[in-house]
Amino acid sequence: MILEIGNLNGLIALIIGVxxxxxxLLSVIGVFLYKNNPKASKVLFILAxxxxxxxxxxxxxxxx
Length: 64
Hints:
Elements (H helix, E strand, L loop, with lengths): L8 H25 L4 H25 L2
Helix pairs in contact: 1-2
């Protein structure tokens, strides 16, 4: 029995959203907090960078 998979465009969009969505959101929040609380802003930028590296590693390996 052959199992055919249909259109996977939604799955690809979901994976890309998981890779780039949270780091982008954390960066935007960090930009808005930079003037009032620069220490919290730096923490958010670091979290965004770490999430991006991990997300690109995990989700990027799914594309191979």
